[in-house]
Amino acid sequence: MPENVKVKERYNWPVTILLILGLITVAFPLYMTIVIAFKQPSEMTNSIQGILSLPAHWSLENFREAMEVTDFWHSLGNSFLITAITMVLTILIHSVAGYAVGRNRDKSKFFGLAYYYITSGMFVPFAILMMPLVKQTAQMHIDNLVGVILCYLVFYMPMNVMLYSGYLKNIPVALEEAARVDGASTWTTFWQVIFPLMKPMHATVAVLTALGTWNDVMTPLVIMSGGGMNTLPLAQLTFQTQFGTNYNLAFASYLLALLPILIFYLFAQKQIINGVVNGAVK
Amino acid sequence: MSDNTITRRGFLGLVGAAGATAVLAGCGGSSDSGKTEIEVVTYKQEAVKTFERLQDLFNETHDDIHVTITCPNDATTVLRTRFIREDYPDIVGIGGDVTFSNFVDAGILADVSDFDGISQVKQSYLDTLDKLEFVPTEGIYGVPHSANAAGVLYNRAMFREHGWDIPTTWSEFTALCETVKAAGILPLYLGFKDTWTTLAPWNALAIELAPSDVCQQVNAGTTTFAEHYREVAEKEYALLQYAEDGPFAYGYNDACTAFANGESAMYTIGSYAVPQIRSVNPDMDIDSFVMPAVENADDRILNSGVDLQFCVTAACPHKEAAYEVIRFLIEHDSMQAYVSDQNAVPCVEGDFELPDVLDGMREFIDEGRTADFQDHYYPSEMAVDAQIQTFLIDGDVDKFLAKFDSDWTRYNRDIIAKVQDYYATQG
Amino acid sequence: MGNNRQRTYYLMLIPILVLFFCFNTLPLLRGFFYSFTNFRGFGGYDMVGLRNYIDLFQDARVGNSYLFTFKLALVSTLAVNVISLAMALALNSKIKFKSALRGMYFIPNILGSLVVGYIFNYFFTYIVPFLTNTTSILADAKWAWVAIVVVCAWQSIAMNTIIYISGLQTVPEDVYEAGSLDGATGWNQFRYLTFPLIMPFFTINMVLCMKNFMMVFDQIMALTSGGPAQSTESISFLIYSNGMAGGQFGFQSANAVVFFILIVTISVLQTRFLNSREEQL
């Protein structure tokens, strides 16, 4: 009995069970994805039993073929490169912007306007920017990886600046004042005091940015089209032609593309959770 | 309206300017090896393997020209964005539809009437392209390569087993549907959730029931769609009673799968659907017949348009080399390879072995009794497919036709102005 | 000293503003210019004055897309925020398998739209009708939007939950301890202690959700492509499919400009309102 009581104190079981039951909303689609990724096109039928049944043979053939068709390692490398560079630059640049804006927007008209100017950017429909951007990047001779990354830096800026400057409200100015009294410049204060404290927000921003860039088709498609450099989502377009879609290969390929980002998320999640500001806020 | 009327001269000037910037921007060029580089971009992504083989074969047999053929994913977007940055491939392989009309109109394509291979192309397909120009333009802007054919696909084994005959008139067709239904089999499985599939029967019916140049006539202001499309609409609506319950819930993919698994006897779609159907049932014996929309069997016409044509861009600096590539692509062996792989119909004269799914359309192809898809004239932004779907759901023909006419004038305003201006200056 | 500090702030921000101007404002201005033309996306064009804007207000299809988008955005935003907040509280409470559960619930956010489209199409076309003995709502012009709400919610709950969780992390443990001494537990604890403290995160989530759903595009493409009977054409769907894929670039640029102004206005009002609530709490 006493042991039981102890466990009850530690864990909220009803909530745990509810959450586990709720997982069916995630598990079911995932199950379908996995099953379809292993099946052959001839096993696809229009009946419930047909689609939910397990594949006739468990073979990695679909995955092998999907990897071959998409030139997997090469495309993965490109996707990884774009995502990683974007993520790092995003965190460095947008946190600075968020800080400069967040600490001054109430005091200075310029920074207040800058905040609204930047955040309003998130409401610009991409379709209107697309064609002018294609032309502009071509004229600047950055219709390549550089252009794509610069576009991402700007696309995610509004949201990230908003997140960072919002988060800054949780970090007392007193911390900076203390550092300044010790003679540190604003720049140093930022990197040594504020930047580390923003860790949970870095993790959030990193996840948001990585997800967006990892799955994005449109930007690399229009900016680098014809450049001969494929990202994973671009290569995956191969499975959908005008008059037919090979869902089995496509799903196998999507599962492969999902793994790296899932692993990354699991890693970043720890940061969100552990990097709490608790101590500092007091 | 005064600010958007374009005089013919103004329009030609514009084309000239576009051409000049294109030439300045340049394309292609000569590689270090002294070979002329020719770049071909086609939108036939499903034919990538065939084109890779053809590309290698060409390069092995040519010392002076090196060709690169690519079939990028989402080629339409790729081509458009490349045109925006004035990065023109030498040859583009596109379909004969409103995109082509727009490219001709924008002066992106070169006149290829001096290409000797043109004489090999069947006249009916050259006429098809000619009609796609908004206003009659001097010259030929594409070399038709292959065509597709649409009508009704049927399960040959099932037909044989039940002793069903191929219908040649609308009454025979509806009678057949009743017979099939009576045998406990679904006559048709329609994938009308995917709006574009509503256009397949629509086109096949329209070419027999409406004048082939109805769109041009409307643009010229001499008729309305309400006058010609009523029967087309009514007959497509009649198909619904022979299809599965709630065809708007099922997509193209569902329909292909159902047809492949023998759930329906027929499918009103084009030959392009065969690879998707066979991916589900590789050994399926599929044949096709021309949609009989009329009561006189001799009035039937096969719905066939240019599916792939090669156009030389106005910016291409090596027109002769580009011609050599096209010459190679339309010669007998290359053509046969493509036709067999893609279930396509060759647009050039010659003795080709046609895929067996086209058996039932063979005589129409040989006799040239074909007419172009009417939707090749519809601007995509008008979303005619979605309008047909709306009509099939609510069944209101009058509303549909009225909207068709009013939307047509709205979405084609600039073209109509151009056409009427053209006839005004001509007449 | 103060001046110097101020200068550093300017030095931090100005290069970033320049970058932003180049890749956001400049192309936007070009797009704004195209909204006065009949540009098709390639080839030549003519200036048409305000014609596109005049057409815009007379176009029934555009009007319907605005109505549909508002309805969708409003319902989805409310649904997502209520569910995410509940999820965040649950996932932040003392539960077993915390990390694993958080990881699993995140998966919907990373599945590509082809997969999501296929699975939910299958779900609504075959499974739901089978279970409830009804016809597919995807084929019903009146109810197809509900299916889109479901998919939108399913996909975006994960991200919003994360933002709420990171908000909950900023609530120090001793606040609860102090609260429980005053008898604040359960709903009262949430209402008077937790919620006011995570109000900034609520603001962010409400504004972001609203904005994301106003710009809904992927889910439409994956699920209905605007059908049935054009009942689920969102504004972004129209701008993209007619402006980029179709030949209405000029007209849809005008649409995009109007849409942009509208959505900025909505968000500013929303932020103002929520901020004022924040201060009250």
Describe the SSE topology.
The complex is a heterotrimer of chains A (282), B (427) and C (281).
Chain A: H1 2-10, H2 13-22, H3 24-38, H4 48-52, H5 61-69, H6 72-104, H7 109-120, H8 126-139, H9 145-168, H10 173-181, H11 186-197, H12 199-215, H13 218-224, H14 232-236, E1 240-241, E2 244-245, H15 247-274, H16 278-281
Antiparallel strand pairs in A: 1-2
Chain B: H1 8-25, E1 29-30, E2 36-42, H2 48-61, E3 65-70, H3 75-84, E4 91-94, H4 98-105, H5 123-132, E5 143-150, E6 152-155, H6 156-162, H7 170-182, E7 186-188, H8 199-209, H9 214-219, H10 225-239, H11 252-260, E8 264-267, H12 274-280, E9 286-289, E10 302-312, H13 319-330, H14 332-342, E11 345-346, H15 362-367, E12 370-371, H16 384-394, H17 397-411, H18 413-426
Parallel strand pairs in B: 2-3, 2-4, 7-8, 10-12
Antiparallel strand pairs in B: 1-2, 4-10, 5-10, 5-11, 6-8, 6-9
Chain C: H1 2-34, H2 51-56, H3 60-92, H4 98-106, H5 113-132, H6 144-169, H7 173-181, H8 186-197, H9 199-214, H10 218-223, H11 235-245, H12 249-280
Helix pairs in contact in C: 3-6, 3-9, 6-9, 9-12, 11-12
Supply the key terms.
heterotrimer; B: 427 residues; alpha/beta; D-Maltodextrin-Binding Protein, domain 2; eight-stranded mixed sheet; four-stranded mixed sheet; globular; disordered N terminus; C: 281 residues; mainly alpha; MetI-like fold; 12 helices
Walk me through this protein's architecture:
- The complex is a heterotrimer of chains A (282), B (427) and C (281).
- Chain A is mostly helical and 282 residues long.
- Chain A folds into 2 domains: 48 residues, no CATH class; 211 residues, MetI-like fold (Orthogonal Bundle).
- Helix content of chain A is 76%, strand content 1%.
- In chain A, strand 1 and strand 2 form a beta hairpin.
- Chain A is globular, with a radius of gyration of 24 Å.
- The two termini of chain A are 39 Å apart.
- Chain B has a domain of 200 residues: Periplasmic binding protein-like II (D-Maltodextrin-Binding Protein, domain 2).
- Chain B contains 18 helices and 12 strands.
- In chain B, strands 1, 2, 3, 4, 5, 10, 11 and 12 form an 8-stranded mixed β-sheet that branches.
- The radius of gyration of chain B is 22 Å and the shape is globular.
- Chain C has one domain: MetI-like (MetI-like fold), CATH 1.10.3720.
- Chain C has 12 helices and no strands.
- In chain C, helix 3 packs parallel to helix 6, helix 3 runs antiparallel to helix 9 and helix 9 runs antiparallel to helix 12.
- The two termini of chain C are 36 Å apart.
- Chains A and C meet through helix 2, helix 3, helix 6, helix 7 and helix 8 of A and helix 1, helix 4, helix 5, helix 6 and helix 9 of C.
